[in-house]
Amino acid sequence: MSQSVQGTIRKITLESTYGKTRKKSVILSTEDKYPQTLEIEFLNDKINLLDNAKLDVGEKVEIGINIRGREWTSPKNEIKYFTSLNGWKIDRTVGLTNATQNQDRKEANVDLPF
């Protein structure tokens, strides 16, 4: 399932390794009527996407996510269910005002040869 979520970055965790899996997370607060605090995980090669974005705490972003779920049976034969949000895309334009976006467009057009 692919969706996106918008919010303000509260924290970016350090990279950790579990076996062959590398993980780095963004803690995001939504601005809904009932705000939510979400952990969005970036795994393996998607960590580069997060690192290259050079995000800051307090920045408003939209993150493309996949919702993942799994079942796990404990050694005591208890069944537990886990859900995770895996990030695959980051859009920073959510936090920009229209004036900022217009200025960016003007600056982009300055270097055009035609």
Describe the global form. globular
The end-to-end span amounts to 43 Å
The fraction of residues assigned to DSSP E strands is: over 45%
Count of discrete alpha- or pi-helical segments spanning 4 or more residues: 2
- Overall mean pLDDT stands at 86
Helix content: 10-25%
Question: What's this, in brief?
Answer:
With 114 residues, the chain is of the alpha+beta class.
Structure description:
It is a single chain. By secondary structure, this protein is α+β, with helices and mostly antiparallel strands. The protein is built from two helices and six strands. A five-stranded mixed β-barrel has the order 1-3-4-6-5. It starts with a strand and ends with a helix.
Question: What's the layout of helices and strands?
Answer:
Layout: E1 2-12, E2 16-18, E3 21-29, E4 37-43, H1 46-53, E5 60-73, E6 79-91, H2 98-110
Parallel strand pairs: 4-6
Antiparallel strand pairs: 1-3, 1-5, 2-3, 3-4, 5-6
Could you name the key traits of this structure?
6 strands, 2 helices, 114 residues, alpha+beta, globular
